[in-house]
Design goal:
By secondary structure, the protein is mainly α. It has one domain. The protein has 7 helices and no strands. Helix 2 runs antiparallel to helix 6. The longest helix has 37 residues. The protein is globular. The chain starts with a helix and ends in a 6-residue tail after the last helix. This is DUF420 domain-containing protein. Keywords: Membrane, Transmembrane, Transmembrane helix.
Length: 196
């Protein structure tokens, strides 16, 4: 009797696990498609389109730099919050950092869609430093969207073990990309002659 009653009770667990795996699979597909689309659009803007005029968005670069600086500040604050076990504060700070970085991405794409790429005019050793920073910034930024979304997804699913593992990789990369974004802005503005 006990054995007969235990069998039905154990069967509902299998579909639940299947649903979780299917949900994870759907997220990974969505994440891959969204990340690939963002990279493809960025490549189109910078390599193929190269700017075609339109609205004057020359006010955007300082705003984008401010958004990057804001994201970096929020990331550090979010890291400090989780170290202090302030989970609610950590959640709001990291979501705010994601919003700031998302707004930056929209502004960055809009600016370069209209104005194209901005050329660095400096010479000498600083030119080598600029391109070293720029290349590392571009390469690492390609991973921020999928990594950040994956980190948020695991937090949303309350899978905090996986969230922590992904976040240990995501945070330093995200912080580096945000800080170097600000650095690149100032290096471009400091190169003679001034460029828009």
């Amino acid at each position: 009797m006990d054995r007969a009653m235990s069998t039905p009770a154990s069967t509902p667990l299998k579909p639940v696990g299947l649903l979780v795996r299917t949900s994870d699979r759907s997220f990974y597909v969505f994440n891959a498609v969204l990340s690939a689309a963002a990279l493809a659009f960025l490549a189109y803007i910078l390599i193929i389109r190269r700017g075609a005029g339109g609205a004057d968005l020359r006010f955007m670069p300082p705003l984008n730099a401010a958004l990057n600086a804001t994201a970096a500040t929020l990331l550090v604050a979010g890291w400090i919050a989780i170290k202090r076990r302030a989970i609610v504060a950590h959640k709001y700070l990291m979501v705010s950092a994601f919003v700031a970085s998302s707004l930056f991405l929209v502004g960055y794409l809009a600016y370069h869609f209209v104005h194209g790429d901005t050329k660095y005019q400096g010479t000498g050793p600083l030119r080598a430093v600029y391109f070293a920073v720029l290349i590392s910034h571009i390469v690492l930024s390609a991973g921020i969207v999928p990594l950040a979304l994956t980190s948020f997804y695991f937090a949303y699913k309350a899978n905090f073990a996986k969230h922590a593992r992904v976040a240990r990789v995501t945070l330093p990369l995200w912080l580096y990309v945000s800080v170097t974004g600000v650095l690149i802005y100032f290096m471009l503005r400091g190169s003679p002659p001034a460029v828009p």
